[in-house]
Design goal:
The complex is a heterodimer of chains A (about 500) and B (about 325). Chain A has about 500 residues and is an alpha/beta fold. Chain A has 17 helices and 20 strands. Chain A has a six-stranded mixed β-sheet, with helices on both faces. The longest helix of chain A is centred in the middle third of the chain and has 21 residues. Chain A is globular, with a radius of gyration of 24 Å. With about 325 residues, chain B is mainly alpha-helical. Chain B contains 13 helices and no strands. Chain B has a single domain, classed as ABC transporter involved in vitamin B12 uptake, BtuC (Orthogonal Bundle). At the A-B interface, helix 2, helix 3 and helix 6 of A face helix 1, helix 8 and helix 9 of B.
Amino acid sequence: MPAHLLQTTAVAKAFGPVVALRAVDLSVAPGEVHALLGANGAGKSTLVKILTGVLRNDGGTVAVNGEPVVLASPTESRAKGLAPVYQDPALIRDLTVERNLRLTGVDPALVRRELAEMDLDGLDLDEQVRDIPLPFLRMLDLARALAFDPQLLLLDEITAALPPDLSERVFAITRRMKQRNRSVLFISHRLAEVREHCDMCTVLRDGRNVASFHPGEGGEAQIVAAMLGEAGAAVRDVARERGAAGDRTGDAPRLVVRDLLIDRQDAGVSFEVQAGEVLGMAALEGQGQDRLFEILSGNVRAAGGEILVDGRPLRARHPYDAIRRGVVLVPSNRLMALLPQRPIRENIAIPLFNRLRRWGPINMGRERRQVQEAVTRLSIDTRAAAQARRLSGGNQQKLTIGRWLAAGFRTLLLFDPTRGIDVGTKHQIYDLIRELADGGAAILLFTSELREIALVCDRAAVLHNGAIVAEMPPTASESDLLTAAHGLEVTAV
Amino acid sequence: MSTAPRAVAATPLPRPSSRANRFRRRQGWVVGVALLLGVLVFWRYSQIPAFGPFEIRGIVAGTMTLALLAMAQTVIVISGGIDLSVGAMMVLSNCIAARLMLDQDLGPVVLIALGVVAVAMLLSGLIGLVAVVSGVPDIVVTLAASFILAGLALVVLEGPGGGTHPRFQELMVGGFDQPLPSLLWLAGVLLLVWVPFKRSRLGIATYAVGSDRAAAFLSGVRVGRTRVVAYVLAGFFSGMAGVVTTAFTGSGEPRASIGATATLTSVAAVVLGGVALMGGSGTLLGPVLAAFCLSLIPPLMLGLGWDPNYAEVARGIIIIVVVMIGGLVQVPRRSR
């Protein structure tokens, strides 16, 4: 019997110019619950997709039970004994559960048996998937994966959407797998779970495996250190040499959020942003940040709570309402915010039309002047000006900010503005953010790169499970931020 | 470092939806369209002194083509596409059939009919293949295909002409006052082709692909193959529609405008029949019933003494009103 149930050697994957995996060596022994860890974007989900035949690796090999295998489709991967539960539910919403099962060629009786073992036999498989709440869909995904009787179960953040009692049932399953000498590859941001239930862990960073150890030994500190690497420490010094950032006037805060319910069950989000201040927000994936920004920008309505802009309540029914009050959003998906087929000039001028709000023809001269101002100020590379989609990611991001510059704003919501942007442009954007804040704008910055908190923010708030769980100075260490983001208490330094 | 004590509150199982609710959600629209059809039929029935087999035959046989085209369109829409070539496919099948069937005996005529349907399946499958392989949106590929097919129809038959065997006509659409054959054909196609397909894994895959291509792929569905199969099935229905047209009119008619109008009417029937244009939901029965509703409108207006030229206006209004009401009644609370 080979020592490793699953072994990957130098697995690599790139999406165009973006390298997701550089070289990953991962070994999972039989009867082992193996945690795969890493910060957002470290390549965990990409690896899972390669192992389950959704994506093809560009380089490296995958071996199951010592034999090299080619996993060309989800079906083939399952035939090799690898069954996944993906991060997002993979059940089709328009079909009943039973039809979903037949689609995958699973005997519903087997799934019923698995559900019964999890004490969930009350679930009606004749129900349409769209009518079943998310946690139970995750459990159905799990039961379906188990029905294949896999040698290796891949769980990609299954517990993120589960309440504690259901998570506990998942761990009962992992224990059972272990007893039967089967293995589990377990991905989670909840380090406590990893420590308690996993035998080994492999940490990915920037598309490489940087450490493998027993998670119980070094404790969470070692895990966090491996996840962040030295990069975190090195850049810190550059951070903030500016003094106690901009003496804040005693004015009323620009943006006040009180008990805002992102989801009905949540505890509610409360925070304030002053004029001239950058509030950084840190969170693990799926803590409600996407929706929070959508609510603030008027795209989605909150389940409850209150937003005050300049002391007056904002009840936006449409982004138009928020924009009129000077609250503007720069979303992470740049192409969503831009008109990809249109020239730079029009992209910048769109919100401008709105603001001028005049009847009749648009004053082209004035438009051109304002657009030119924004372009110059942001040093947008205008060589590919004819179509926004041909700009580089960094220039596109500048464009999404630039159009609000031209239109004027008072509160800026930035959602992960530097995602997938090269370092040089990142720093230009950091400078711009600071400049805007010093000019009196209130800025809320969500970032998945924790070091940006130290680089550009005046304060940090940590979001966990739809609530702000901690507020910290920007000098807070990344491990403190990460610990808080995991919903754990930060021990006083 | 403190690990909070685990809350042991058990998450309650979701309450299963009631049978009535489920029925309303899944069959509500079809029932609604059936009721509308019932009202229209009754109305028509009360308009004329003798509503007998002759009238029924007229309605059923006259609607068969549209009903079959609606089926073809439905299959593609369920799989997440749209097929703008169904009408042209019908016209082409009609022309091939009429040209070949002229002055033949019944035996060869039946064989020709089968052959024509097979050719339509092949061509439609080819269109689907092009759409899948090229990655060009269905709407573009099928629109282009509709021009090609319409052109081919003119090659096959330069002008109205051709013919068929009178016995074959009776067999397909019934004689003068015999509604049975056309009813049986429609019911037969629904029960013998559609129901088994819908229950098969392939049928489920078709719904899955239309509902969420990515999730279907993750479930192990071969997305491309499923879409091509949907086109083949649509070809079967539109080929049948062409054969039925031949039997009903006893000739071939290559005018391209017939195909274009038929395509648009098939989309109307699909919408009125409660099939979401987004794909992934709906049945074949709804659009068939809707096709009957749509084709009852001109005779009804005639009976009322209105100018039947306004029939299209009435159709348009009915579609908007029905879809609006349906949207208000059916759309569930905003999910997610």
